[in-house]
Amino acid sequence: MKLRDTKQLLNDLNLAPNKNLGQNFLINEEIAESITSLVKNQDYVIEIGPGLGALTKKLAQNNKKVLAIEIDRGFAEYLKKEAEKVNNITILHSDFLKYPLNKIKENINIVSNLPYNITTPIIEKVLLESNKLDKFVFMTQKDFIDRLLSKPGSKEYGPISVLISSLGNLEIFKVINKENFYPQPKISSCVSVFVCKKAVSQNDRKAFYEFVKLLFKERRKTILNNLSAITKDKKEAERKLSIVKILPSRRPETLNIDEIQLLFDIMLNKTRKK
Ligand code: SAM
Fold first, then answer.
1. Which of 183, 199, 230, 269 is most buried by its number of CB atoms within 10 A?
2. How much is the mean pLDDT over the chain?
3. CATH 3.40.50.150, the chain: domain bounds
4. Other C-beta atoms lying within 10 Å of the C-beta of residue 48
């Protein structure tokens, strides 16, 4: 939908964009087309925050079933009426953060122009709760993606970037200028694609993420300090570090994903001392 049509529709529905809900509507059909072309011929697609439906109908044309979860009652009601015209869209008026993603039995693809104010909790939920995730296509503010893609040694590198690279592969698909949204956000956005590579149980994902968060809790301290706080025993922490051959004086953000995974395994006693 173009800018003029978007404004007209909002006017007809007597609705206004709500900043607190991160409502910046995509107003470029070609971009909507290229985003939705990333998810085709799937049995089950979830859209988070369909808004005025810029992506929803296109997703429904390309896939078997679409579940779109929208927190805003006004938009959800409008979309429910629109969805009656087709037979494969379900609109749920709900908070995605409360949705029981782990109950879904089919493989799922998730697509979203994410509400920027809750980007991190949504990404955490998708990665931690859905064992059935194949692909997650999402649009976020551009600076955020640098954090997700950051590498060991950089300032941004932290638990969420570790979680992402432990489960799959994340790539930037396209940068989208801010002029393509109404209202216009302060900075441009980025469409990224996460492909899930590893089937890790929900409990293991959560335990791993909790461990990584503790490991990064005091970034200025050494890995020995942080690990001692977890083991509650410095000698034990030293022993574990020596088994996986990680220097105790290193800072947590210098550890690569394999080293963190090894350390996590040794904490669970999965690795035996040779
Ligand atoms: N998909 C539309 C588009 O591309 O034009 C709207 C995207 S807008 C950036 C984000 C949407 O997410 C809004 O419609 C907003 O109401 C919705 N939203 C915000 N928080 C939500 C939540 N917790 N659960 C579900 N939807 C939410």
1. 230
2. 94
3. 3-199
4. 24
